[in-house]
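INFO  loader      accepted 1 record
INFO  loader      residues=424
INFO  predictor   begin
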Amino acid sequence: MPPLRALRTLGVFRARQWPSPRHYSTQAPASASASSFSSFHLAAALVLAGGFAYTLQSRPVHFDGPPLQTTSLAQVDEVTKQKTKITRHSPMRLRMEALIHQHQQQIVFALEQLDGSKFRRDEWTRPDGGGGISCVLQDGNVFEKAGVNTSIVYGELPRSAIDKMRADHKSFVDPQIEKLNFFAAGISLVLHPHNPMAPTVHLNYRYFETSDPRDPVNATGTAAQNWWFGGGTDLTPTYLFEEDAQHFHKTIKAACDKHDKSYYPRFKQWCDKYFWIPHRNEARGVGGIFFDDLDAATQPSSKNPREDIFNFCSSGLEAFLPSYLPIVNRRKDMPYSPKHKAWQQIRRGRYVEFNLVNDRGTAFGLRTPNARIESILMSLPLTARWEYMHPISGTGVEESEASDSTAQEEQKLMQVLKTPKEWV
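INFO  predictor   done
INFO  writer      dumping tokens
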């Protein structure tokens, strides 16, 4: 059942004669109240617990005419989900929501089977529409800390947020528009194993769209819309096993190659650049893929770019368990010493530094009033350590000091972190 018909059936609003298709005025309605910047930041923080900040490159949105009187987009979507099944013909935002919830359930189930412990499941809602599910495991048998979060956010970008976006993206939206509705959906996970021989892994996939504030449900069928996808996954070992890095990258590359053979080399390089810790002059880990702002403009030869990118994100999510579970199964029961555990804690400190200092999504979240801080900081390890002038990884330590023959495995990792390499 179409969204508008479903709403009329439930009496959400009275059936009315919609005006003929037209453009809408760039002048905001007089009754529109000023909105805070928090909706934009909340979207960035909750959907992205780490890995990116929102940017948007798209065609300008023009409005020329009187505002339409519609219900909220969140309300339309809620009724649609109650009355119809989500299919390939459903709005992309509902398809992305269904996709991330499906994979959250699959991943949590697989990790519970591996660990033998249950995740804590917190479900939360937002007054303006949407919400999220945070699944977190602490002090498990395999994982010291593991989190798999999903977020659905409906909100409104005020003029200040639009201007901030336009500073970097000149074609973002018509300069005169006062507010812009947005929707964001994403899944984010971070797994920190107990065993120093087993690597930490991170994954994030998300979708963002804006809509005409005068016609948020696109009742006329002509409303302009901006949209994009982002995502990726990366591996952060404490001790480097080259076969693990090769397996991880080969699995991801196979998922990329199904859709575009240029994806893996482009997104691998992007990942190496993004997950770089400038103040340490080293990478966070051995990389993976990272991408942002994939929209119609990035797919010039595609007949249906949004569908193609959605299918690519779906393949990326499907590749996660095959890319990581064989690695953690090989390493979770390996013997280790207090020395190995101490090195793991030093490397965990680097993970914390990147997430709190360099990660754009986390930074937005921590500056956002009323954000769900526990979900944003889910990515941090349960324990970490900093030592002054650590002989192997301390910044500014002379190479001669780090040439301890008993630390060859630690030095092997540092060489790769200083100079990222090709694994496939």
